[in-house]
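Lab notebook, page 48
Experiment: co-folding of the full assembly
Goal: obtain a model of how the components sit together before planning crosslinking
Operator: M.T.
Materials (sequences as entered):
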Amino acid sequence: MLTSHAEVLSPRSLQEALTAKASHPETVALAGGTDLMVLIEANKLAPSRVLNLWGVQELRGIDAQDGWIRLGALTTWTELIHSTLLADHAPALVEAAQTCGAAQIRNRGTLGGNLANASPAGDSLPPLLALDGVVELGSARRGLRRVPIERFFLGYRKTALERDELITAIYLPARVDGDETFFRKVGTRRAQSISKLSFCGRVRRQGGQVTLARLAFGALGPVPLRAHTVEVALEGGPVRPQLAELLLNDIRPIADVRSTAEYRQRAAVNVLRGWLESLAG
Amino acid sequence: MKLSFVVNGQPREAEVRPMARLLDVLREDLRLTGAKEGCGEGECGACTVLLDGQSACACLVPAVQAQGATVLTVEGLGDDPRLARLQEGFVRCGAAQCGICTPGFLMTAAELCQKGQVLSRAEVRDAVAGNLCRCTGYQKIIDAVEEALCADQPR
Amino acid sequence: MAQLIGEGIGRVDGPAKVSGRALYVDDLHVPGCYYGATVRSTHAHALIRGITLNLDYDWSDVIVVTSVDIPGENVIALMTDDQPALAEQVVRHVTEPIALVAAPTREKALEAARNVRIEYQPLPAIIDMARSRGEEPRIFGNDNVFKKLELRLGDVKAVTGGVLIEGEYEVGHQEQLYIEPQGVLAVPREDGGVTIIGSLQCPYYVVKALIRVLGHDKLNVVQAATGGGFGGKEEYPSMLSAHAALLATRAGRPVKMVYRRDEDLRATTKRHPARVKLSTRVDESGRLLSLDADVLMDGGAYNTLSPVVISRAALHVSGPYRWETAHVRAAVVATHTPPNGAFRGFGAPQAMFAVERHLDKIARTLSIDPVELRRMNLLREGDLTVTGQVVKAPGGLLALDAALAAADESPLPPLSPIPGGGGDAARRLPGRGVSVVFHGCGFTGNGEAKIKSKVILELQGERIRVLTGSTDIGQGTDTIFPQLVASVLDIPLSWVEMAPHDTALVPDSGPTVASRTAMVVGGVVDAAARKLHAALQVEARRSAPFAELARARRARGPLRVEHQHQPDPSLRWDDERYIGDAYPTYAWMATVVDLAVDIDTGEVTYRRLITATDIGRALNPVLASGQIEGGALQALGWATFEEVVTDGKGLMLNDRLTNYIIPTAADAPEMVTLLIENPYEGGPFGAKGLGEIPMDGPAAAVAQAIEAATGAVLNRLPMTPERVLEATP
Ligand SMILES: Cc1cc2nc3c(=O)[nH]c(=O)nc-3n(C[C@H](O)[C@H](O)[C@H](O)COP(=O)(O)OP(=O)(O)OC[C@H]3O[C@@H](n4cnc5c(N)ncnc54)[C@H](O)[C@@H]3O)c2cc1C
Ligand code: FES
Ligand code: FES
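Observation: model returned without errors.
Model output:
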């Protein structure tokens, strides 16, 4: 029922978009609107200027470039699901996309919006963390810069985005043979649900020894996080499921209207252990 | 802003605020009240319309993003014989009770019909999970959608 | 054409609903209409020190109404007159309405409401129902009890043998969550009165309430297409209509009030939370010797319909079983929280969850199969209920056998994968649960005799109009009534139409509640149709088929017949001692649920839900099974998803659809819905009520299934993954 009175600019090119953002840094970017429109309706945000990115073609598309997969910031969840490139290179991200919202939300919600919104429950975040993703940010004055995803989230809903910047793309390294990944969302129900916790794991093994481990969790703290203690413990040995207990060193879950801290903690350990057991065979 | 777009096959214009919700533009400016508001935040799907052929919650789409677009609402479903069959199936199967969720379900199902997807029953359930219904327990809605999708398959 | 009965014909309002033509209140466009908004209490209990307007705000096009502007009495009349339309000196719960505003747009109205300042002096509040009875401060009467009652069958104290088994069961609030929020449009009439058009179940409740508030009866209430009610639009629309009418009268123009979802969730009625303590004696073979039940419910700050809810709880806490002796004590108390009210099942689901869970405990204690225990104790022909009612043609065993047979025969659908690709690694344990319930149809005791429901049939040419105040809120009575008339008179369905549900036209047929519309009002419709036929025969002085007589008198003026409900004279009920025929008849239902529990997360995945329900006669099997499926899913929602989270003041915190979680299609099981016909001679073509019983049984079956899967014993609803995981040994 609430309508924003904001002025809206709909740029046709990235350059135009970045220039507009730089000249009015208070301008709020609009991608699919699935977060922004909710905030406006809930009276939590009343932007005076909006930058409608939807028509900027340079922010679209999924393609492979020198060992990386580039995902334009405007890539929707639906596009993630239907990408054959991602099915090969980042199946965990595709699985995450499948669990996101429902059809209507996936048709409009974007990867860039999920990152910039920076909810610790954002479902793309654990896969992007576990896959060593890199965020590309653009500014009219300083050009493009790349930030590893782990350094992108600074605190609760705080990111490395400067006021004159936009997210332009997300880069994922091409998949290395033998990498095994896993995604699990524990939400409030089977669909149209916000994560109580989400998990994405990736291990690389050589001769039964773990050579690389990435364990990323969503909704267990103010930012999506990596379980470094468990990762370090896993690397250099065979998969030992009991290491899941070490997770308690890495997470500080909170209670809210969706769940309790105890539950998040116990379920996270269980999910991790369950996956490690299946890996251990 | 002056919004120009195609609604149910007709070119339409309206003078609106750019961040006005497509739902309000349809319901108030165009008096197309088929799309309903159950939550205003993308959760219930009662406001679902097809925007350039894709289902979207009209409560989350600002008018500016409908500029030049093609919008299909429940009022326009009957123009396509295949989608008219979907509507009839909803009545016959008992998929509509109070009916407030029905336009939204029909639009989500219309996207599936138009794409000609072949879905299992469980997949149909996932495909319509963005539409909440409190009356039917969904059983008869799934029956009706499944029937419409099967009817579309070449036999 | 009598074969119309039992036909699953599509609902008459179906074509309008699938084309977007059906008009719900928010779809009505009225030129010059203002929009209303409500200023609500932020305190659970406080004195109102002052109501002031922010002078910096532009009030030029805003109408403001407070309690001093009420022309009649400041009361929402229902059972007692304790609830004001607008709080005067005291607020007794958060979200209690204090002032109203109306403005040319919704936004302006909401904004104006935020610019009304209320000054409070907070007072101590009672939030916990366990600390209400007889305590200070007083909210209702002299002991904070809205209603207490007691019933006895034999002498429980005399039973000392057998095994003593005790248990305590708890259920929380539940929100009806109709997908269309509450809404009303008030339009001033030329004669100085007002027309209310709204999303509502009981137009005559609104009429009765408005006469008191407005101080006149120049009013009529029209039901718009209504997007679900489930009890939630039984009493609350009286409040909302009063508000809209006050604003419209003051503004001299139409005023629309449609709640936003968050306001609807925070402010409107919910299912009563309950705590049930059962103390029972059972012999070694599992025979039920004595039941001692103590039921406590939280009514919230005002009485609403709580006395009737607690009464139904007390009458159902025995379950559909034969107890040799019983003593039931039940009370509903006041707290400083938003009032609870009608919701499908009306007290029975809370009681039934407790007793069904308790039967599981008995089975566990005695190592008897829980299904066998039920089979052994189900009420049989001639048995006595706890009120001493002689059971006739019970359907419990029929339902149980049918459901179990279907569970063996119909294939179990594949277990859907868990969200994410973890399907393979997920570790899920299967479980099956069974429950049996009964539900008294229609009003309790002599309720129907007091209501005297009326229906009018009007013949004009060959067309018959059915005039009734009973509303169709999705359950399909606007289809079933014409089906009944056409069947009785052996005429095509197209000859019969429903008059608009406008109190200016239709008589009071009693409220649309208590699973009574098809059975009781349908019975009146049936009798009225016979009366119409008889009148034609008298007029024509010959007996002939109705169609022939109607054609012959086509040129003559309209003919009206009116019929009033005639209660079964053989029913006996003592409302003081709760003895006798509590209900004219009962519906019976067995549930078999198959689910899986994720041992890592406690999440429940539903797989299949089989219900077998004795509904007397299925007048329209498509509509009947649709009612049962919808009710059963509400019950599953209550079982594992739906929890109202409140703060220390009783304010609902999860006031959005993103955090008050109802099941989606992906959460719902495949359903096998068996309708068992076991005709009741008092209902039209043998039909009984069926609207509420599906809410009664599934939650207990789910609890049993979770226990079977994991060993987790849960006696509290909802059984969220958090609770399941915690209780898993
Ligand atoms: C019903 C519903 C269900 C949902 N379910 C899920 C779910 O299951 N999982 C989940 O993770 N999320 C969910 N969401 C949240 C939301 O859909 C996602 O976060 C989505 O990816 C946001 O993308 P968007 O394009 O719609 O963002 P917008 O709403 O357009 O923008 C979100 C924020 O990001 C900023 N922004 C957008 N693009 C850029 C850019 N390129 N550069 C800089 N800033 C930018 C905006 O200014 C805004 O602050 C749900 C939302 C709804 C309404
Ligand atoms: S109103 Fe748009 S999703 Fe509910
Ligand atoms: S039919 Fe009433 S909400 Fe779906």
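Interpretation: The pocket of FE2/S2 (inorganic) cluster (ligand 3) is lined by residues B 96-101, 133-136; C 179, 228, 474 (CB under 6 Å).
Next step: discuss with group before ordering constructs.
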